[in-house]
Structures are given as structure tokens and as C-alpha cells.
Amino acid sequence: MAVGWGIGRRNRSLEDYTAGGRKLPGWLTGLSILGTYVSSISFLALPGKAFASNWNSFVFSLGIPLAAWVAVRWFVPFYRQVGHVSAYEHLEQRFGPWARMYASLCYLLTQLARMGTVMYLMALPLAVLLGWDIRAIILVTGLCVTFYTLIGGLTAVIWTDAIQTVVLIAGAIVCGALMIGLVPGGWSEVSALATANDKWSLGSFGTELGAPTFWVVLVYGVVINLQNFGVDQNYVQRYVAAKNDAEARKSVWLGGLLYVPLSAVFFFLGTALFAYYAAHPEGLPEVYRDAAKSDYVFPWFIVTVLPPGLTGLLIAAVFAAAMSTVSTSLNSSATIILNDVWPRLTGRVADESLGLKRLRRATIGWGIAGTLMALAMTQVKSALDAWWILAGVFSGGTLGLFLLGLMSRLASRAAGIAGVAVGVVVILWMTLSPKWAAWPDALRSPFHSFLIIVFGTAAILVTGFLATTLSARREVKS
Q1: 34 and 178 Cβ atoms separated by less than 8 Å
Q2: Nearest to 121 by CA among 337, 400, 325
Q3: HEC per residue, the chain
């Protein structure tokens, strides 16, 4: 909050507030990208997955280098050249106003779900394990993040992201080193137990598409990270904020590639937790041995095993992981509201003074909305799955539309509409048919849920290219 207050006094324009004056170094924006990657979901869920099963989900991280290379080769130069702060302004130039509004609304709804999910999943285990009121945790966290984002703009978000990233990295590494010492026999015992129980496995290398095999998770990781680097306002805004093209490329490599070893640390924490509680079975309540409760194991270890001081560092790291993600969503969402939504609603572009007022109002409004979403999830837990479904639908359609415009210069407005329509239908079918009891078995999707965004994006591209080809043939005949 002090960082936000100090930086906020230097914000004099919309450029300062939404793009950091376009003068930030690559190492700083790269740490911010890394902080955006690592949310409280990652900090708690990745160790939980490794504890309950194996390293199969780590394969997701292996898709990042390829996606980062594509981003450095095509996405970063594209956004740096067009110079728009909004990631979706070029979609209007390419496909018409509908495309920009569609992408903007999809992004805003997805970020609302993301903020609520991150704050709720951060607060839930800490409330249970520390005895704190879950609503108080959510309210205080939401208030603090909204304050420094409101005052300091993007520069404050990026600096606090960088600080929080250092805290969470330090917490994870220190905890991992300590856990090796806490297991009788040290590293050799951890390795032996993990090997004996197949904890290092990256999953099956088979070709089936209905299970999370190595190849299914890898393809999913590549596509999701192409979405992050290609159409996510959180990342695009950092490309624009970098002081030059070289620093923008550096930020992608730094933020993307650092996540690979960092995620390996999180998975190792889960494997070490398995070894520790194999040696100390009395230390883990039976309820947390259920795979559905595996996200609670790491917080339980933090508050019951770690010494004072280190416990505080790890709790701070969990909060840091959540706050870095929420602050990014807040600033980016406010930027989209100012640049993409308000002009459509009012019919005019705001000047500097009015624009800053609208940005701050949007930040406050979205901070309240995200906090309320997190509070609502404390009462209606089934809403969590619904929001994840909607987020998948929205992101799949946006990524496919962006790639269609980038890969085909001839794709028209009609081709874009047709592609999005078919892609969203495919995504809805793959998402809902396995869950709907009345759906005939022969018509249910046989594919794993990781492939929803993959097939949805592919459907948009194929449909868009076919529509473009047919249109070109009709023009030739006429």
C-alpha cells in the first residue's frame, strides 16, 4: 500500500496509469508476469496435486517455452507495432466493432471469475487452519489490493507484483530446503519413497484423448499459454509498458521461463509432503488424506510444522501469490472498461482528466465486484465450477478469433462471426455433454476436458479459413 501511495503521486496521465509511461525495464515487467502466473491456486493446488498423485500436471509448464518463443517472434512485435494499450482494439479494425466488444466482455467476465476464485481459494484453507473468519480475510485482502491499485496504477501493480514474487519464491525455496531436512534420511529418503510410489511420473505416454496423458496436458499447456501471451490483457499491457522492444521480449522470456523451475519447486513441495507424512503419519488428519482435500495439506504443514517466522513467511507468500494476480486483473480490467466499453456506451473517447476519473471509478467498482464474487463463493460453492466453465468458453473463442485475424489477412467479418459461432458450440458441447444426464451416451464428448479449448480454438480457425476460401471462390466466379 505504501508503494502504491508513493508511485501514485507521479501518475500524471492515462499513459502513466495504464502503461507505466512505456518506460519500465524488462526484468521488472518479467517478474510481474511471473507473479501473475503464480496465484494462490498455484501455491496451494500444485503441491496438493503432487501429494495426491504425481507430476503429471507439471507437463503444463513444459508448454511454456514454445508459447514464449511464439510470443517473442510474433505477438510482442505485433502489439508493440500497433501500440494500443487495449489488447482488443485491433480486433475492431480487423473484424468490426462486434469483435472488440465480444473479446472485451469475455475478458471482463473471466477476470471477475478469476478474482473471486483466487481470493476465495486463498482464504478458504487459511480460515480453516488459522481460525480466522473467511469473510474478514477476503474483505481485508480485497480492500488492500484495490487501494494500492487505485492509487498507483499499472506501475504500482508491477512493482508490488515484483516484490510479492520475490516473497513467494523465497518462501517456496526455503520451505523446500527445510522439508528435506525434516524427512528422516533427507533427500535420499524423499527420492526413494517418491520412486517407490510413482510420484515422479509425468503421466501416460499413450495416445488416448479421454485421459490426461503426457501429450494431452502438453498440448493443453501450449494452447493455454498461447492464449496468455496472445490475447490476455494482463500480459499485453506489460508488452506495451516496456521501454523498448528488447525489454518487452526480455519480460516474456524472464516471466515465462522462470515459471518452469518455480512450478517444479511447487511440485517438489508436494512430493516432499508425501515423504514427510509417510514418516509422520500421525501428523496429518485423516480428512486431508482424501484427494479432494489435498489443497489443504500444504497449509496444514505450514501452520503445524514450520517454526515461527517461517510460518509467517509462507502465509505472506500465499497472500502475495493471490494479491499479485488480483491487482493485475483490477488494473487491466479498468483499462479495458475505459478503452473498449465506455466509448461504446457514451459514444465518445474520454480526455485525460475524465479518463483518469473513469479509470479510478472502474478500479473501485471492479474491486468491489471481485470481492463480492469471492464472498458469494463462501455460500454457493457450486458457482465455482460454473465460472470455470464460462471462463473456458470465453477464452477459447477469443484466442481463436485473434489467431484467425493474425494468420489470415483475407478473413472477413462474416468469417470471424462464423468461426466464433462454431467454436463456441464445440466448446459448449465438450463442456456440457458429459455433465448432462439426459444427453445420449452416443453424443457425449469422449475427450478430456483439457482439450476443450484446443478443439474450440481449432474449430474457429478451420471454420474461419473455410468461410474465407468459399467467399474468395464466389468472388472469382462472379
Answers
A1: no
A2: 325
A3: CHHHHHHHCCCCCHHHHHHHHHCECHHHHHHHHHHHHCCHHHHHHHHHHHHHCCCHHHHHHHCHHHHHHHHHHHHHHHHHHHCCCCCCHHHHHHHCHHHHHHHHHHHHHHHHHHHHHHHHHHHHHHHHHHCCCHHHHHHHHHHHHHHHHHHHHHHHHHHHHHHHHHHHHHHHHHHHHHHHHHCCCHHHHHHHHHHHCCCCCCCCCCCCCCCCCHHHHHHHHHHHHHHHHHHCHHHHHHHHHECCHHHHHHHHHHHHHHHHHHHHHHHHHHHHHHHHHHHCHHHCCHHHHCHHHHHHHHHHHHHHCCCCCHHHHHHHHHHHHHHHHHHHHHHHHHHHHHHHHHHHHHCCCCCHHHHHHHHHHHHHHHHHHHHHHHHHHCCCCCHHHHHHHHHHHHHHHHHHHHHHHHHCCCCCHHHHHHHHHHHHHHHHHHHHCCCCCCCCHHHCCCCCHHHHHHHHHHHHHHHHHHHHHHHHHHHHHC
| Side chain identity, residue 315 | I
Contact 335, 343 (CB under 8 A): no
* pLDDT single digits (tens) 111-167: 988 898 889 888 988 888 788 999 999 999 999 999 999 998 999 999 999 999 999
d(CA 315, CA 292): 22
Q: Give CA–CA dist 117/387, Å, rounded.
A: 9
Phi/psi zone of residue 96: left (φ > 0), alpha (ψ -120 to 50 degrees), beta? left
Contact 27, 243 (CB under 8 A): no
State the Cα–Cα distance between residues 469 and 390, nearest whole angstrom: 31
pTM of the model: 0.91
C-alpha cell recorded at residue 368:
468491489
Provide the grid cell at 109. Answer: 467476465
The pLDDT tens digits for 43-79 are: 888 999 999 999 999 999 999 999 999 999 999 999 9
Q: Which pLDDT belongs to residue 384?
A: 45
Q: Are 252 and 71 in contact (CB under 8 A)?
A: yes
pLDDT digits (tens, 9 = 90+) for 348-362: 777 788 888 889 999
CB 31 within 8 A of CB 165: yes
Q: Which cell numbers hold the place of 305?
A: 510444522
Neighbours of 94 (CB within 10 A): 20
